[in-house]
Structure formats: C-alpha cells, structure tokens
Design a protein that fits this description.
The chain has one domain: Jelly Rolls, CATH 2.60.120.10. 22% of the residues lie in helices and 34% in strands. The protein has five helices and 16 strands. The N terminus is likely disordered. Bound molecules: fe (ii) ion (FE2). The site of fe (ii) ion has 4 residues, from strand 12.
C-alpha cells in the first residue's frame, strides 16, 4: 500500500493559507478595508503580499458595546480572538479618548494572551500589518533575541502589547553628531506600554524565544514619511523596510547590551 507522509508544518502552513488568505493582485486602500501587508525579517525581502482580506468577509456583529466575530469554518479559536481584537481596536481608535481606549483594550486583551500569541505565531512572516486606515495601523510583530533592528521614529504614539516572550525597546535621544543610548526597556508577556510620538527606538527580544506582540500605531504608519537613524552619527536615513533590515545589528556586537 502506498502511504505518503506529509510534514506537519507544511500541512499547518497550507491549511492556514488556504483558509486565511485570499490573495489579490493589487493593494486595496479603501477606507475600512482589512488588508495585510507582510514583511519578512530576511534582509532581501521587503513587501511580499498585500490586499488579503476584505472587511465584509469578517461578518462582524455588534453585541452592545462589544464586537465579536462569529466562528467560521476554517478558522481556529486564536484567529477568531485576534480578529475580534482587531475590530475592537478599530472601534477604540475611532473613539474620542482613543489613547486611553486603546491602552485599556490592550490591557484587557492580556486575558487571552496565550491564544493571541498562537494567532501571531501562525503568521508566516514576522511582521504583518493586519489593518490600517486614517485612525490606526495594527501590526503583529515577532523578534529574535540576537538581532536588533535599527533605531527609528514613528512620528505618532504606539501601543505595544506583548503576549509571549519579552520585547526590548532600545531607547535613544538624538544629540549633535550622535545617538545617545537612553536605556533598554524590557516589555514582558502580559505587559502593555506606549511610546510617545518623539520616541526613537531600536527593537529586539530578550531570552531564548521570539517575542510575540501587537503594535498599535495611532495613525496611518505606512502613509507618512519617517526616518531611521544611523547608529553612530544619528543622521537620518529614509525609512524603508529594506533599509530597516539592512541596518540591523547583532546584539552580541553592541555596547548597549554589554
Ligand atoms: Fe518601532
């Protein structure tokens, strides 16, 4: 009898793509559209896919003050919990007191941190933009402990909710002719922090495993011009994902971690 074994990771990846993604040929920037913009941490990869899902596919329902996404065939519970959180973040980002509303929501989401970490782990890419409109930009982010991505600005506030592992914010201030290291902030699983619009940080993880987090930016991150900063001189470098990855350093070589 002919028996064919299928690698479990391959099968899981195929199932995830088959039931989660709907590839499209062009970027759909219509307001309210849920779309994905994925990046790989590999230095030679930048944008790899766009325009995956349409908002109407979510079929969300309003339950009083809470948004919920009904279980759908092909979706795991963690994926539903993540989609539900995305909808609620959008609602918070559109509210009057959006900074505290987003923060409170992310703190509340820590009750589901295991499931949210699972949903983030299921993405093929380490950094995935799962939603963006004029009010917010929502990303899932995984980082390794041995690579530190280059100092950069966001020009808007960002909320960081870590669900697995420890993310490290390496903070800097610009001074004439250099970047001054301002310390490292370790954000452990279960924590939520916010960096203000003036913050400059490099980013990595601590420990032996990848960190898993959601980053919620208080505006359309991909629509603005922002900068990376030269590690030594502090000079501005145009932000692109290509430059972001090309300027990454090995943690072992950095004085900031000695
Ligand atoms: Fe950042």
């Amino acid at each position: 009898m002919y028996v064919r074994f299928i690698d479990a990771n391959f099968l899981a990846g195929w199932l995830h793509r088959a039931f989660t993604f709907r590839p499209a040929g062009k970027l759909d920037k219509d307001p309210g559209t849920l779309w994905q913009h994925t990046f790989s941490s590999k230095p030679d990869n930048t944008v790899s896919s766009v325009a995956i899902r349409q908002a109407e596919a979510l079929q969300h329902i309003n339950l009083g003050n809470a948004w919920a996404v009904p279980q759908r065939r092909g979706k795991t519970m963690p994926q539903n919990i993540l989609e539900d959180l995305i909808l609620r973040i959008r609602q918070a980002a559109a509210s009057e007191d959006r900074v505290s509303a987003i923060r409170a929501l992310l703190q509340e989401s820590q009750a589901d941190k295991e499931e949210l970490a699972e949903a983030i782990a299921a993405f093929e890419e380490d950094e995935v933009m799962v939603f963006e409109d004029e009010t917010c930009s929502i990303w899932t982010c995984r980082y390794f402990a041995d690579v530190v991505f280059a100092p950069h600005e966001h020009c808007m506030g960002v909320h960081i909710a870590v669900y697995r592992g420890t993310e490290v914010e390496v903070l800097y201030k610009r001074e004439p002719g250099k970047l001054r290291h301002g310390g490292n902030s370790l954000v452990k699983a279960g924590s939520v922090v916010r960096l203000g619009p003036e913050a400059i940080h490099a980013i990595t993880a601590d420990g032996n495993a990848q960190s898993h987090a959601i980053h919620v930016y208080e505006g359309p991150l991909t629509k603005i011009e922002r900068s990376l900063f030269d590690w030594t001189t502090g000079e501005r470098v145009a932000f692109s994902m290509e430059n972001f990855h090309a300027m990454a350093r090995r943690k072992a070589s950095m004085a900031e971690f000695s």
